[in-house]
Amino acid sequence: MKDPKLQASVVSDLVLLSCVGLRPVLVHGGGPEINRWLKQLNIEPLFHDGLRVTDAETMEIVSMVLVGKVNKDLVNLMNKAGGTAVGLSGMDGRLLMARPNPNSAQLGFVGDVDRVDPTMLHPLINNGHIPVIASVAADEAGQSYNINADTVAGELAAALGAEKLILLTDVAGILEYRDDPNSLVKETDIAGVKKLIAEKKVAGGMIPKVNCCVRAIEQGVSTASIIDGRVQHSLLHEIMSEDGLGTMITA
């Protein structure tokens, strides 16, 4: 998301996959862009346990940046690359209903996914469109929430009955030894992942990613992969090659 060349690489991969008959759905956040706008408005970004503290003023900016800018920039890039993208947020068509995070006293308007209704996505996907979804949703009372994009992707993958969930991140995947880039875990199952967490080999920001993959698989998604989005065409490598690129988790 930070590097225009890598962004263009991911976009062209998605368009190519769509052209050869796969049906991708892209879910995005936009942390760096949100931080940039907060700083322009002299608002200091705050984080608690890796999640953005989101008061009412920050929530307004999160919505504006994710839905109005990042989402439309990605849609524009995809359309320029030859795809037919449709930009949405969790609020559109009641695609996602949010609920407050259990730590809402510390985090403010940071939410979890309460339920997913993918009805509106099926005709788009079946007609060859690529849905591009910003990870913002509202609760029954209409209050907006900022939701972790990995969490949204996992819940949407399960609701759509997706074959595969892929999280693009800025590390190679799950490393057995955190400081050794050559210790990449190429494939593991849910039991193996839980063992790695218990042994504290998966820690920090990787834990929510791994938990999101496990939850998606437990709800019927066949495989979930965590791959290095900094590598050009990592998405194509993961889907089209025997070896894949990052860590694949299976049931």
UniProtKB/TrEMBL annotation:
Its EC number is 2.7.2.8. GO terms for cellular component: chloroplast thylakoid. InterPro entries: AceGlu_kinase-like_sf, AcgluKinase_fam, ArgB, Asp/Glu/Uridylate_kinase, Glu/AcGlu_kinase, NAGK-C. Keywords: Amino-acid biosynthesis, Arginine biosynthesis, ATP-binding, Kinase, Nucleotide-binding, Transferase. Pathway: Amino-acid biosynthesis; L-arginine biosynthesis; N(2)-acetyl-L-ornithine from L-glutamate: step 2/4. HAMAP family: ArgB. This is acetylglutamate kinase. It comes from Linum tenue.
